[in-house]
Amino acid sequence: MKGLESVDLKTVVLQAFSRSPSVTQQAYQMGIGQAQIREAQSAWYPQVGLTANTGSSTQQDSTNSMNNAAAYGLTLSQLIYDFGKTNASISQQKSAEESYRYKLLATMSDVAEQTATAYLDVLKYQELTQAVEENIRALEDVRRMSSLRSEAGLTTRSDVLQAQSRISGMRSTLKQYQASLSAAKAQLTALTGVRANYYKPFTAAKFNDPVVPDNIDYSKIPTVLYAQAQKESASFEVDKTKSDYLPTLSLQANRTRYETKNNPYWNNQIQLHVSAPLYQGGAVSARVGQAEGRKNIAGTLVDQAKLDILQKASVAYANWAGAEGQAQASAEQLQDSVRSRDVYKSEYKLNQRTLNDLLSVEQDVFQAKFSQISAKYDSGYSLVNYATAVNNLLPQLGINQGASQSLPDLK
Q1: Which residue range(s) make up the domain with 185?
Q2: What is the DSSP letter of 280?
Q3: DSSP letter string, 285-341
Q4: From which residue to which does the signal peptide run (predicted)?
Q5: Mean pLDDT of all residues belonging to the chain
């Protein structure tokens, strides 16, 4: 594990990229796709081979002079024209390789979302822990006040015990939040391989406010582009399969040396080779039907990807709007509770308020802080979810995603 003094959201996301097996897997898949393109393109290049065999070979002539014990030589084959088979195969592999690129981008966006959520969990439980500690200090002030009044005979000892009981309850709550904070840090460390002493605050101002997702630009979203590339690849597969009905023309040449007993000789051949299926029991038609079925399925995956994005963006927008409203209400509630606490403290000292009143208003202050913190991070989660849905998370984190042909900067 790497130890750092401080980290921010961008740093942990980049660390998660370098650690994520799924990102590495998709990067390797891109390499496979490039190799598949080169394999498909190789069909247009000359195919050269070496042949050799040994053993008795008898050819019937009047003198048996052509009988040989070994033969060796070179063969050459050059594709001339195959009515689109090879070109369709190349286009299919290019579309597949492009889909791998979009899949990598989509995977990185998912990893970034997961990491950002874990980072927000750490910040959230840090603030909640601090809020509980502040409430405990406030309750300890109330206990000291009640203790002084009890010693002066102005109130009973039960007030002190009641305040202490409330403090004990909040200390139990503190332990729960501290455990949640430790779990959140462990989750983030597992994702990034990084431990830090300080986690920089989340700045919502860096994120664009979500808008009603009526006009999402699907042309920039990797999951949709991935599905579209898969559909294109399936279309080229249909073209390639249909071309199996047509002949293939190639030039074939070989030069073979035959080792005969009496008169070794060379045999040279140059031929135009034509291969055309006449009847294969419906195999070609069946393959065409399968390819068209895969194309239709790929088309539905494009629609499904768009629907998933619209749903995720819509839910994230609704959650963000609700959290923003809750944050505003909680802020007003906190101000009112703090003012009430100040008044109640003064009235308690004048014996115009009971200890229960003072403990109750302290609970109101804590509850308002709790609601404010929860709403703040609910808004943050929604911002991350919405940005991920519309493929804007990495740019807003300052990670260079670039155009569709480039990859995020991992440095």
Answers
A1: 2-45+84-246+299-396
A2: -
A3: HHHHHHHHHHHHHHHHHHHHHHHHHHHHHHHHHHHHHHHHHHHHHHHHHHHHHHHHH
A4: none
A5: 87
